[in-house]
Amino acid sequence: MSARLDATPLSGHTEAPLVDIEGLARVFDLSKRWLNRMLDGSGKVTLTAVDGVALSIRRGETYALVGESGSGKSTIARMAVGLLPPSAGTVRIADADIWAERSAARQRRIRRQIQMIFQDPFASLNPRWRVGAIVAEPIKAFGLKADAREREQRVGELLSLVGLDPRDAGKFPHEFSGGQRQRIAIARALASEPDFIVCDEPTSALDVSVQAQVLNLLRDLQQSLGLTYLFISHNLAVVRHMASRVGVLYLGRLVEEAPAAMLFAQPKHPYTRMLLDAVPDISMETVEREPIAGEIPNPIKPPRGCHFHPRCPHVMERCRTETPPVYNAEGTAVRCHLYAPEAKG
Ligand code: SF4
Q1: What is the mean pLDDT of residues 116-139?
Q2: How far apart are CA 271 and CA 242, in angstroms?
């Protein structure tokens, strides 16, 4: 099912979004080979990792996607940057549908516009290349500076921009700390002069002491360069620090979306409340929340109706069979039958 769970109309913004995702779905086929299935009589097995997600991100905004492991966050990130084709739906950046674009020139422009920062900076940097070559590669690939001296100068500027020394261009990735390596990865991401960057758990592999420095760098760069971020994280303290809007994912579906301040002050969906309860260092004194037991169900056989119903303390009969539509609950878009007009009486 595709339903727009998007606070944009609720928050009164009319500006066209830079990123517009509609009806996005991804189904993985986990079946055994055809011959094995014939021999043991088993059927096809599929996993719906992302189920009809719709969201939009305005220019200069940080949209955070949160949810437990297996909620579909990283699958959405990979479809949004063009690394994984969707089973259904569209991803539009500015005026281009990134998965339907046929013109080679426009495809190239899209690839330049979108970059990704990964969780593990060491794995994302070629260990055999010097930092200068790593950062210069997108500049060369997209023909942004034809002259080698100009490229070298640009690499120096980018390294300075992320708080490194231009002379670091001559070193190899293993000569740097984890935080510095993530700065190199950020410099490389900036090298193509992108508009939109997907940050997939960009600080979760780093020491706590350097996490804040890297997050502050990302925020400063956003302000100075007008960047738009899709920020993937399981860490709600990080999300609160970074996000202007937050979408909460549960088993591939967006279940709540709101401006960050509103979501942290007044979480609506029972699952969002459970996530916030699980974070001891976030002060939420004004909100009454109930701890919810249980684990995320097997995504190969998700529960019918509302996927969250086996864990929900407010479960009603209809929750077991009817997928909740999106309701507007005081400015929050929430997919829960508790917010149906008839449920409020
Ligand atoms: Fe709970 Fe029902 Fe709302 Fe799902 S729809 S979160 S089961 S109350």
Answers
A1: 90
A2: 21
DSSP string, 46-105: EEEEEEEEEEEE-TT-EEEEE-STTSSHHHHHHHHTTSS--SEEEEEETTEETTT---HH
User: Does 319 sit in the ligand 1 pocket, CB within 6 Å?
Assistant: yes
The residues spanned by each domain of the chain are 8-84+226-280+292-344
Q: Whose CA is nearest to atom 5 of ligand 1?
A: 336
Protein residue with least CA distance to atom 7, ligand 1: 309
Q: Does ligand 1 come within 6 angstroms of the Cβ of 306?
A: yes
pTM of the model: 0.89
SS3 9: helix
In whole angstroms, what is the distance from residue 311 CA to residue 271 CA? 9
Residue 202 in contact with ligand 1 by CB distance below 6 A:
no
Q: Please determine, for residue 9, whether its predicted confidence score (pLDDT) is greater than 50.
A: no
Is 192 a residue whose pLDDT tops 50?
Answer: yes
CA 324 to ligand 1: nearest atom? 5
Contact 64, 249 (CB under 8 A): no
Handedness of CA 333, 339, 344, 345 (dihedral sign): positive
Q: Locate all alpha helices (DSSP H) within the chain, ordered by sequence.
A: 8-11, 34-40, 73-80, 104-113, 121-124, 131-141, 148-161, 178-190, 208-225, 236-242, 260-265, 270-277
Tell the CATH superfamily of the 8-84+226-280+292-344 domain.
P-loop containing nucleotide triphosphate hydrolases (3.40.50.300)
